[in-house]
Amino acid sequence: MALNIRPQIDDTDCDCLAFGEVMLRLDPGIQRIGKTNNFDVCEGGGEYNVVQGLSSCFRLNAAILTSLVDNEIGQLIASMIARSGVDCRWIQWQPFDGLGHQMRNGLYFMERGFGVRGAKAVMDRGHTPLAQLQGRDIDWLGLFEKIKPRWFHVGGVMAGLSAQAPEVVKAAILAAKSVGAIVSYDLNYRHSSWANKGGREAASLVDKQIIKHVDVLFGVDKLAKTVDSLDVEVFSQALFAMQQRFPNLQSIVTTMRVVKDASRNLWGGLCLHNGKIVAASYQHDLAIFDRVGGGDAFAAGYIYGMIKNLTAQESINLAVAHGALVMSTAGDNSSASLEEVKSLAAGGYMGAKR
Fold it and tell me: Does the predicted model carry a pTM greater than 0.90?
């Protein structure tokens, strides 16, 4: 049985709306953050990366609900969002005070790592407008009546931005459900966001309160044991355990990732849908160029499959293939084509064509 996704009325319908912070990523390329003279820039954010993939790769109508400071950095981020085809109309613009004392746009510096040297991120996202958002600042029901998304996506990154963020996320989820949207939530955990708020244990308590209102969950709270292979049985046990704790969930989906080093991961995925475990047919010892955004791309592939009423098997195959392709390129975002994803999901190889 497929998810009960509201039918598309016309080709302007919002297929998926994500709610989360969009930052400017500064990438030193092959250099290290503390040694480089140059940075490339792109936009990124856990929830945003999902709708970016849905728009850029999967050609769905996707939108982002976020907040930016109205200065040149904010306008740069917005222009990058628009370039990917993601609807920018729901960006909440905030005035710039000239110095960023009150609000500032988020930045993060990211070096990719290689081999035994792991990837490293330096976050610079204090005082961002989305972190200061209060539940009363937005007419949630009125806003969602305007957008009417068929699917709404948010996650632990957004929920960890501030002390009030969990209540803001909950208000947005309830408004999404009031207009008939399927709601998905990603258990993304960022240590930098929770380090001074109780760490992973505090994040799990917040997640527990939010998941009660969710239809599709990405990720699992914990595995029964540490794995060094793509052990379907171990991951399956974790999915069934989550289902027992949260019977409201219609689908639980997770990547299967074992990090060998920064340049090579074991990579796969599976889902629990309609009481059955479905594992991706595509599983690989994967060479990694830039792992940031791989999990978000995985979520985008699964959401696309569900929106298109594909089977759970087809959807999880697309999820794993899209995540793999995004980790083969620089930056958070998807630059894969739908044809490439479908080919890889079917067992193909993205070799050169002559």
Answer: yes
